[in-house]
Design goal:
The complex is a heterodimer. By secondary structure, chain A is of the alpha/beta class. Chain A has helices at residues 49-57, 96-107, 111-124, 140-152, 170-187, 198-204, 238-255; strands spanning 7-18, 21-33, 38-42, 64-69, 72-73, 81-84, 158-162, 190-195, 207-211, 218-223. A 6-stranded mixed beta sheet of chain A has the order 6-7-8-3-9-10, sandwiched between helices. In chain A, strands 2-1-4-5 form a 4-stranded antiparallel beta sheet, covered by helices on one side. In chain B, 79% of the residues lie in helices and 0% in strands. Chain B contains 11 helices and no strands. The two termini of chain B are 15 Å apart. The chains are: A alpha/beta, B mainly alpha.
């Protein structure tokens, strides 16, 4: 791959037809994600961040501009992506293990290898003792961990996370941020996180793409210069708070 | 749903006594309500000395059933077979229709009006015509049972098949799952609880369908037996048939419910019915 970035988004716009005419959801968005990088897209709720994720996932087409995955234009859904949604979206008739194995079944991966990989991932997300539990026997945080393991089973080239922790309480959310950091450090999967939590974005990312409200435009791309590996304690460091303040000001200015 | 909830769920059968168990309590309540009903009925008949042709007592009804057991067994079997065959046809046809409606939406507008018409036509009114078409054997009764029973299966199954979570469908698309995979791995399991709801309604309707068929033209079955008994003002015999019909209907319903628990045990968390299920 060499110099080619994992994701290249160039002058991307997306509008939806409504009764009152076309509504612009995303306007003129340009940014790259380097291979192995963790990028967050941060913006107010309902600003079109999810639309951006769907375009990258190939679930929706762009109105203008291009999105490329490893140099190839994204024209439709592709197996190279792993997605974690806002809701865990687990199948309640499947155990945690069977849920993680779903993509493997659909893609026809060899059974024994997939099973071993699924168990390994469930251990990675801290659910070693819950592999045979059904979703209703798991807490919300545990369900979302299963969803993360499911998104990684087919070794995707890019992991797309669509506000995966927004439905969780603050404590669980903080805990899962640390878990996600660990999972990413081990797999080094190129990741794109959609979020409206500034601390979450700062804590996890190499760079934060700060968006304005509708139509979503890039306000600024902030490089997070906190050293890696990151630790939970960094969340109270001066540098961390400085970055939060800086991003807060970028977003705050948009509201005036 | 925390860890402690899971531990509690395990702990219940160990700690509590049998008579505290929800399933036991439910069984007791059902038995008690039936017993009260039967006792009140028996007492009413005795205290007011109601003549048998008006209202036979429970004891007389049971005695009639035992006395004419051969007759009842023969006719019960006929009605049971008609009901069950009609129900099976309804399930097969209903699920197929629902699948077509959901998987090929273009056909929904073509199929639905026809299904609706078939459901709106009064079955009692078309029963004589069906007898002309299919003769006086079992088939017209099976057909009426089928006709009256399939609709709730279509409606419930179709709504179930269409109720797959948006995110799950996005997941399927992102993995480039085939239509077939989406249908079997996503739609069918999601639809099962609603499919069973439809089947529970259908089995009770199938009983009614079979009886309608027997009323209009037949020489066997519990419906025929009730007509015969009424024409001879043999009310105890009619009541015997009614009691067996009720018991048979409940048994068929219970059978569907048992099947439901075996097929979709994972749905237990979201239903109130927990009869006979251990933790």
């Amino acid at each position: 791959m060499g110099a080619v970035d994992a994701i290249e988004i160039e002058q991307l716009s997306k509008s939806y037809p409504t009764r009152e005419g076309d509504v612009l959801a995303i306007k003129d968005v340009t940014f790259n994600i380097r291979t192995g990088e963790f990028i967050s897209v941060l913006g107010p709720s309902g600003c079109g961040k999810t639309t951006l994720l769907k375009v990258i996932a190939g679930l929706e087409g762009a109105t203008e501009g291009t999105a490329k995955l490893h140099g190839a234009p994204i024209k439709g859904p592709q197996r190279k992506t792993g997605i974690v949604f806002q809701t865990p979206a687990l199948m309640k008739w499947r155990t945690a293990l069977a849920n993680v194995l779903l993509p493997a079944e659909i893609l026809g991966m060899p059974e024994a290898a997939a099973r071993a990989k699924a168990l390994e991932l469930l251990e990675l997300v801290g659910l070693k003792d819950f592999v045979n539990k059904y979703p209703h026997e798991l807490s919300g945080g545990m369900q979302q961990r299963v969803a993360i393991a499911r998104a990684l089973i087919h070794k995707p080239e890019i992991l797309l996370l669509d506000e995966p922790f927004s439905a969780l309480d603050t404590m669980t959310r903080g805990q899962l941020n640390v878990e996600l950091l660990r999972i990413w450090s081990e797999s080094r999967t190129t990741s794109l996180l959609i979020t409206h939590s500034i601390p979450e974005a700062v804590f996890l990312s190499d760079r934060v793409v700060v968006m304005t409200s509708r139509p979503a435009q890039i306000a600024e791309i902030v490089t997070i210069d906190l050293p890696r590996p990151r630790t939970a304690e960094m969340r109270v460091s001066q540098d961390f708070l400085r970055l939060i303040d800086r991003i807060g000001r970028i977003i705050g200015l948009e509201y005036v | 749903m925390s860890m402690s909830t899971i531990q509690n769920m395990r702990a219940i059968p160990l700690r509590t006594q049998v008579w505290r168990h929800p399933a036991f309590q439910k069984g007791m309540k059902i038995t008690l309500s039936l017993a009260l009903f039967v006792i009140a009925w028996e007492l009413t008949c005795r205290i007011f000395a109601i003549p048998e042709f008006a209202l036979p007592s429970p004891s007389k009804t049971v005695a009639t059933i035992i006395g004419k057991w051969d007759l009842y067994a023969k006719h019960s079997m006929v009605t049971f077979i008609e009901t069950f065959a009609g129900f099976l046809m309804a399930v097969a046809f209903g699920v197929l229709c629902a699948a077509i409606i959901v998987v090929i939406p273009v056909l929904a507008d073509i199929i639905m009006p026809l299904l609706l018409i078939s459901q709106l036509v009064p079955k009692v009114a078309i029963a004589p015509i069906l007898l002309i078409w299919f003769g006086y054997g079992m088939f017209p009764k099976i057909f009426i049972a089928f006709l009256i029973a399939f609709f709730p299966i279509v409606v419930n199954t179709a709504s179930g098949l269409a109720s797959v979570e948006r995110s799950l469908l996005d997941l399927a698309r992102s993995l480039e799952a085939s239509r077939w995979q989406v249908f079997w791995k996503f739609r069918i399991p999601v639809a099962l609880p609603e499919m069973f709801s439809g089947m529970k309604i259908a089995i009770t309707l199938a009983v009614i369908g079979a009886i309608i068929g027997e009323f209009v033209g037949g020489s066997s079955g519990l419906g025929y037996l009730i007509l015969l008994a009424n024409s001879e003002v043999d009310t105890p015999m009619a009541f015997g048939a009614l009691v067996l019909l009720s018991i048979g209907g409940i048994a068929l319903y219970a059978m569907v419910e048992l099947l439901e628990r075996l097929v979709i045990p994972w749905n237990r968390g979201s239903t109130d019915v927990r009869l006979g299920m251990g933790g």
